[in-house]
Amino acid sequence: MQRILAVALAVVVLAVALVVVRVWLEARAEWRAGEGLVAEYNALPRGVAADEPAAREQRAVLLHDAVVRFREAALWLLPGSPYARRAVERLLLIGQRAEQSADDALALYAFRAARSAILGTRGFLIADEDGLQRADAGIARVSARLERMGSGGEDAPSPAERERKYLAQLAPPDDPDPWFAVLAAAGLLAWVGGAMGFALRGLDEHCRLRFGVTWRAAAVVACGLGAWAAGLALA
Asked: What DSSP string describes 74-112?
C-alpha cells in the first residue's frame, strides 16, 4: 500500500510540475512576442514618413498584435511568475499612450484587453485589483469621450456623468461566494465518497450488511448532502 501511495504521489507531483513549467513557458513566450512587436513598432521611422497611410496602418497592426500577445501572456497566470503582471502593465501603458495620441479605438482595445485578462484569471480574489481599477477607469474615460463625440445637444450629460455611468456598468457582478462554493464541492465529494465506501465495504462476502461501516457511510453521506445543499443555497 505504501508503495502504491508513493507512486501516486510521485505521479501527482510530476503532473503539477509539468503544468507549472508549461504555464511559465507559455507566459514567457507570449510576453517576448509582445515585446518584440513593441520593439518593431519603436524602430519604425518617425517624422513625415510616419504620417503616410501605409506607415500608420503598419503601426496600428503592430500595436494591435502586441495587445493580443500581452493579453495572452496575462492569461497564463502563475503565482510567482512576473509575466502576467508585466503584461497587464504593458496593456495599460499602450492604452494610456494611445489616449495621448488621440487613438481612442486602440486605447479602448488595450484597456478592455487588460480588464478581460484580469477577470479571466480571478479565483477567490482578483489578483490585480489596482490594474482592474485602472483598466475600468480607462474604459469609462474613453467611452465617455466617444459618446460625447457622437452626441450633441444642450441636454447631453456632462463628461463626469458619462464616466460614472460607464464605471457603474463595469462594476463586477455579484458572483457566488467562493467559500460556500467550496462547501458545496466538499459536500459533493463527501457524499459521493461515503456512497463509494458503502459500495466497496458495506457488505461482507455473504452480502450481509456490515453495520459499523454502513452507519459510518450513512453519516458521511448525510453530512455531505447537507453541506452540498447548504453550499448551493448560500453561494
From this structure: HHS--TT-SHHHHHHHHHHHHHHHHHHTT-HHHHHHHHH
Backbone angles phi, psi at 182, to 5 degrees: -65, -40
- Judge contact between 81 and 24, C-beta under 8 A: yes
Residue 203, C-beta contacts closer than 8 angstroms, at least 6 positions apart: 209, 210
Cα distance between residue 106 and residue 142, in whole Å:
10
Distances (CA, A) of 74 to 97, 117, 157, 195: 19, 6, 35, 42
When mean pLDDT is compared over 46-55, 62-71, 219-228, the highest value belongs to 62-71
The pLDDT > 90 percentage for the chain reads 23
The DSSP result for the chain, as a single string, is -HHHHHHHHHHHHHHHHHHHHHHHHHHHHHHHHHHHHHHHHHTS--GGGGGSHHHHHHHHHHHHHHHHHHHHHHHS--TT-SHHHHHHHHHHHHHHHHHHTT-HHHHHHHHHHHHHHHHHT-SSS-S-HHHHHHHHHHHHHHHHHHHHHH--STTPPPHHHHHHHHHHHHSPP-PPPHHHHHHHHHHHHHHHHHHHHHHHHSB-TTS-B-HHHHHHHHHHHHHHHHHHHHHHHH-
Q: Looking up cell 503532473, which residue turns up?
A: 15
pLDDT in tens, 193-209: 878 777 777 777 767 77
Residue 229's nearest CA partner among 180, 193, 168 is 180
Contact 227, 219 (CB under 8 A): no
Q: Which three cell numbers stand for residue 22?
A: 508549461
Cell of 2: 505504501
